[in-house]
């Protein structure tokens, strides 16, 4: 729920797509997140596309966490239950605080669309160095669900009773 007597504060958001098969030309999930965050009034700080390699993912996210100009990192892809999906292992160790409810709520919302397959999603979020990191599955539908139902309002300082803006 948004409250009109507060001021919207645009945030600097980086987007990372993790995929072994997508290229910049067909990164529909990354494109969706960039469009959604800019339409919401935020700024794209940086964007990258990496193969699902634990150390490259960790290095890129670490670089953004250390950059004072990046307040939020949105990662899409690499959160599935397949052996090659390494985002939770790459990124989770960087968190100073885990946002426990993010993955729980994402799976609950996903259940309405994909039933029991939702339990294989390893979506996660956490805070590190005053940076919010949200990791979503790679499908455009999952990114839309995560952005619209969980992330967008939490990146708006007008959202009550609480939001993440004061932590960034």
UniProtKB/TrEMBL annotation:
MoaB/Mog domain span: 14-158
Q: Which InterPro entries match?
A: MoaB, MoaB/Mog-like_dom_sf, MoaB/Mog_dom, MoaB_proteobac
Keywords carried by this UniProt record: Molybdenum cofactor biosynthesis
Return the CDD domains for the record: MogA_MoaB (cd00886)
Q: Give the record's pathway.
A: Cofactor biosynthesis; molybdopterin biosynthesis
Output the Pfam families linked to this UniProt entry. MoCF_biosynth (PF00994)
Which SUPFAM superfamilies does this entry report, sorted A to Z?
Answer: Molybdenum cofactor biosynthesis proteins
The record's annotation in SMART domains points to: MoCF_biosynth (SM00852)
NCBIfam families linked: moaB_proteo (TIGR02667), molyb_syn (TIGR00177)
Q: What does the protein in this record do? A: May be involved in the biosynthesis of molybdopterin.
Q: Which family does it belong to?
A: Belongs to the MoaB/Mog family.
The identity of this protein, by name, is Molybdenum cofactor biosynthesis protein B
């Amino acid at each position: 729920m948004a409250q009109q007597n507060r001021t919207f504060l645009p945030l600097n958001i980086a987007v990372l797509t993790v995929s072994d098969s997508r290229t910049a030309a067909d990164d529909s999930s990354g494109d969706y997140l960039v469009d959604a965050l800019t339409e919401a009034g935020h700024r794209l700080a940086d964007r990258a596309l990496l193969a699902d390699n634990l150390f490259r993912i960790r290095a890129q996210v670490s670089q953004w966490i250390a950059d004072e100009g990046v307040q939020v990192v949105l990662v899409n892809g690499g959160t599935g239950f397949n052996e090659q999906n390494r985002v939770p292992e790459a990124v989770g160790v960087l968190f100073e605080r885990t946002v426990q409810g993010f993955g729980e709520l994402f799976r609950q919302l996903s259940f309405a669309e994909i039933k029991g397959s939702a339990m294989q999603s390893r979506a996660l979020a956490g805070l590190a160095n005053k940076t919010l990191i949200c990791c979503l599955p790679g499908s455009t539908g999952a990114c839309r669900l995560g952005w619209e139902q969980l992330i967008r309002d939490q990146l708006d300082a007008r959202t009550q009773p609480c939001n993440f803006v004061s932590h960034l």
